[in-house]
Amino acid sequence: MNLIKGILIFAVLLSLSISPLTIAYRGGPSVNLVENKNPIAIPDISLPKEAGAPATLDKLAVLVGINDYDGTQNDLRYCVNDVSDVQSALVKFYGFSSSNMVVLTDSTATYANILAALDWLAQNAGPDSTVVFYYSGHGSRSSSDRDEDGEKIDECIVTRELAFLWDGTLAFKFRNISSSKIWLGFDSCYSGGMADAVQDDGMRGTGRVNTMACKANQLSGESSTIQHGYFTYLLVDQGILAGKADSNGDGNVSIEEAFNYAQANIRQYTHSQTPVLSDGFAGDLLP
Length: 287
Prior knowledge:
By secondary structure, this protein is an alpha/beta fold. About 25% of the residues lie in helices and about 20% in strands.
């Protein structure tokens, strides 16, 4: 009897010592994303100076991660971790310089600042530049053509002040970037819609590799166990930084290899999302 009692007490104590698994979705009906239709239109960040020599135009990146949204009910926990991993991968494995990156997190990841950063990419990237844009945060979608891009349903990323930055607007900005070597990444709900605009060669097409966390009708999740979004964890943390996506053993991890690794392993973590790839790059893209 004492032995059984002791086992029960141990089991209770053990259960109290284990942190509960927390899963959050980056958008969807459980999130109260009320659109802010009047965001501040003036950027308030200092962007890197315009590049003055070809060498400084070689590799450019804009990385956006948002945990802290206006209010408290829409906050996420691991989006900043996601973009921190992307930044580490770009510097350690792909030869990017932090001085040629714009990293926007939380309070700096506003509608105006993101658009200003995309304009900075267009102003400083040449045809032979490598350009990266990665977003981790909330995503949403409409039931109408909000940005007049010809789609019946539009998808968007959600800025810090809960302004909706629609896919057609993003596509327009990316069309202004002359580079033929661009990696776009979206770890957000409904992100698969970021490459389906009808008249869009900004986020898909020649020279563009777009990696998206889920289909256009799915939610993208994050977990306290891995302290990342599922997609970014597999794509970047495990696929690139840990080298697990190097399928041909050449010591390099292309974006396509990283995506294939994430797609092949996502079911170990969630059955709710299926990553999507739009690949218009000839061969494999090494940023």
